[in-house]
Specification:
CATH class of the largest domain in chain A: Alpha Beta
Radius of gyration of chain A: 25 Å
Strand content of chain A: 15-25%
Number of helices of chain B: 13
Order of helices and strands of chain B: HHHHHHHHHHHHH
CATH class of chain B: Mainly Alpha
CATH architecture of chain B: Orthogonal Bundle
CATH topology of chain B: MetI-like fold
CATH superfamily of the largest domain in chain A: Dipeptide-binding Protein, Domain 3
Largest interface: A-B, 35 and 29 residues
CATH topology of the largest domain in chain A: Dipeptide-binding Protein, domain 3
Number of strands of chain A: 27
Oligomer: heterodimer
CATH superfamily of chain B: MetI-like
Radius of gyration of chain B: 23 Å
Shape of chain A: globular
Chain lengths: 613, 301
Amino acid sequence: MKRLAAVVALLGLATTTAACSGGSTNTPGSGGGGGGGGGGLFTTIDVTRPGLEATAPANPYNPKGNSFVGYNAMRIAWVKNHLTDPNQATPGIAASWEIAPDNSSITLKLQPNAKWSDGQPVTADDVRMSIGIAYTQGSTAFSITPGAAGAAADVEVVDPQTLKITQDMANPSPKFARGVLDTTVLPAHVWSSVLPTDFWDKLKSARGEGGDAEKAREEVTALGEKVIAFAPPKDVSAGPFVLERVNPSEALLVKNKNFFNAANVAPAQVKFLNYTGNEQIWNYLTQGKLDQAGFTATPSDVMKRIEAASGNEVIRGYSPVAVGMAFNQSKKPYDNVHVRRGLAYLIDREQVTKVASPEGGTAAATTSGIHQKAAQAWIPETVPQLEPYKPDVAKAEEEFKKAGLAKKDGKWTLADGSAWKVSMHAPSGFSDWLAAQENIKSQLVTAGVDAEVVTTADYPLYLQELAAGKYDVGFWLMALGPAPYDIFQRLYGASNGWTNVGNKVSHSAAGKNGNWMGGSEEIEVGGEKVNPGELTGKLNSVGAEEAKPIMAQLALAANQDLPVIQLWDYVNTQFVNNNRFTGWPHDDELLRGGGNVLMSGVWIQQGLIKAKQ
Amino acid sequence: MSATLVPEAASASSTMRRNFWRGVWRVMRRKPSRMAGVLILIGFVLMAVVGPMLLPEHLPGDTNAITQPPSWEHWFGTDPQGRDVLSLVISGSRYVLLTAAVTALITVVVGTGIGLFSGFKRGRWDTVLMRVTDMKLTIPGLPLLLVLATVWQFGSPLQMGLVLGLLGWGGVARAVRSQTLSLRERGFIEAARGLGLSTTHIIGRELLPSMAPYIAMNMLISVTGAVYAQVGLFFLGVLPYESDNWGVMLNLAVFQAGAMITPSALGYLLAPLLAILLLTLGIVLVVDAMDEIFNPRLREE
């Protein structure tokens, strides 16, 4: 869920449009002073969060905190953007780790020379306390929710450099190690006051059952608020940089001389420029101001200008996210699979992608519930069996007729003769989704299906109303890899009625417990009845090889049943400038990281980025 | 007696009316810009009434010509859906102008009604109504609209006009009240009272006509106010999306097409701006003409 939140936040941001303001106009030069020497000033933006807040604390859990993950906030390791393996990572605070073959535990070996910016060493106790703090925030591996899959059972400090974290094998998850590695490390000598002395005892009782456990869980969750509000007197960082100052237009970080790989960190200073909307990022980029910026939805003409600016380069990589047009099947006529298929034949996805996301997306090859690149890696034999739903008006009409719809005066009406209008919803800031829906509307209207686009004020409200079943059709992020369960739970998870608690999958009726998609509990795939939610639930506990046939079955199910029409698969576009720094990675696995991670910080701390001579 | 008086009065009023229109014509001719103003306003009204009838309900888009700069084929270029920007401005004008008209009507009717009643009656009613007006005037309009937009979706131009009108009558009410207070002490009103004419007659026939030019000018000015307010709200993206609304066009031009960065989207940004500018210009010119028509001192110069 954390990963999903991150993707959602990133995409939300990438498509945010907001009123723009002047912002910072400082020109980054190559001869920046201060810091610990090296290659000058590195200018970037925090693409995960618009709007700097000068008074916010250097707290990575604070939504507005001036903690930039990869720069002045460190994680145990940096999870990679691997196509299929969720547990691959590059070293962070942990220099190396060992995952037990059955995924039951992970043993971390910390960097021997890791120090905080105030000179104190980074120890296993710091990591243990950080895990405690992660529990208060309910992360994937450190969850106290009863029955949560892939949660840790024990955290043991073996020696000052070694920790062993054991998974609760009652309900294991193949991505347990990822959850552990993707945890922020905080200094115990600064943060320890946040957790009460009896915290670990409380945690133990929270993992139990009964009234005491419930009370303990409430206490741990309540600590979460305290963690979010905590303001360290000054930034103490184990990362390559430490926060120097923030004003409304920029945040300045200087090199942390105590960082374990400081010798290979090229920039002496890092500046994060403030922005409120994409338009401002485009502006910075066309002026060549930024050394790096993460994924930002960009129209083609603007992209051309960005590419034309001196030194700019656009690196394109794999992004395990797709967007689909999702149906509320409790609303008529979307309960009828033929209507959904008819719409799939009507909508030209190439055209939609061309209009809506020409630079940041590839038209979906078909609806499989999985990104086309990941599909080739996981289920290459199944891909050719999938119906491609190429635009075909005749087939669409055939499907509509099968569904009992009728065409009167060139317009399709419902079976009972009443008017049919495809009402599509999108949050108003998401310009690419809006452009897509506007294009779909025009395609549908041309084919005689009345359609409209309706906006909702913002993304949280959109998700809330979508979950409440207020919309007929809405856009939905899906295929959130790399873990197979994460990919398919977007189609056959809680939003479609299946909840997975304690490795037991149960189904709620449409309109209950967040089931807004309202699909049937059992669907027929190739003449065989399957329960897609149960299949998806299985993905949470099986290994990669066992997962493949299940994924093939689910891809076929999604392809025939069409709970969503997959529209485009996102492309991770990264913007870099070669005038001041070089050495940008082009490797897919390094171009994208865990939630809220600013990958440029990771590249810098690995010593990949070099100052241009 | 009344039998002889009536025809005389009728012929006198028809002569006055003739003189009035002759005066109007003279005033209009004196500055050609005033004629231009009238033509602009007529143009906009035609655009809003007839324009959308000439265009298809859903404007066709050409995905091979997305966000094109102005050309002979598309005078203001195309939008990010490949639709003609000029057609979008025309089909969007109905919502904008209808809202503006409703706003102006409500502003004037409510503002004048309250102002007249308050100024003529005076006393307790005046105190109560003016305090209400004061309170209304202290509420800042745009922030209130932003808050209202979160709870009320202004789906139709009538709703939008109603809200803007109900937010905008304060100034007119205050001004009309002060005019009424000053006029009601004048000799001709006293004479009318002395003649035993009814209150309805005094207000309808004596007071209102002397204030008509003032009210008419306020009405036109509130049209521009309503256009700015609604376009502003749509631009900020707080109102439901209507692809051909001028404010949405501005929003999409800046935030979707990147008009501040790429010149190809400039036409998309400029077209609705020009429409607003032209409409304002037309109103300013007509108000200038009205000022002279109704103001005897200016007429004599």
